[in-house]
Design a protein that fits this description.
Layout lengths: L5 H9 L3 E6 L5 E6 L2 E3 L2 E7 L3 H8 L2 E8 L6 E11 L3 H16 L5 H7 L7 E15 L1
Antiparallel strand pairs: 1-2, 1-5, 3-4, 4-7, 5-6, 6-7
Length: about 140
């Protein structure tokens, strides 16, 4: 798989939103913004166990996602495709939980973060690794 340039990788790591694409129950593409962190070459997200996103990924693990942004004349981004894998290992799950809390709230103990994701062992939240298998990038 093509690697991201150092500049584009740094851009993606700092981006606020990842746009996740999956197939809904009727087979139509659906794209939704989600919070994410990059860890060990994967894009990690936390979502509800009853969410349409998670149900779709359980049916079909192939997904796509985009991280993009910039200002007119200075757009950049990466469009990726790959597989969604549940983070089951409790240590890795805690690492994703902590990283999301730090990125979006400064700490995983922040009351708003806890209201959204619960505690690290919350049974209503699933953590997912989006493992890239292909990428196209742009900078202009």
């Amino acid at each position: 798989m093509k690697e991201l340039s150092a500049e584009l990788r740094a851009f993606c790591e700092l981006a606020d939103l990842l746009r996740l694409a999956y197939l809904d129950l009727r087979g139509f593409p659906r794209v939704v913004p989600v919070w994410f962190v990059m860890m060990d070459g994967a894009y990690c997200i936390g979502i509800g166990t009853t969410s349409a996103k998670w149900k779709a990924m359980q049916r079909e693990s192939r997904v796509g996602w985009v991280v993009d942004g910039g200002t007119r004349g200075q757009y950049k981004g990466a469009s990726l495709r790959g597989r969604a894998e549940e983070v089951r290992d409790t240590t890795r799950r805690a690492e994703v939980f902590e990283a999301l809390g730090r990125k979006y709230f400064g700490t995983a103990e922040h009351p708003e973060f806890v209201a959204i994701f619960g505690r690290v062992d919350d049974a209503e939240t699933v953590y997912v690794r989006l493992v890239p298998e292909g990428v196209s990038t742009w900078q202009y």
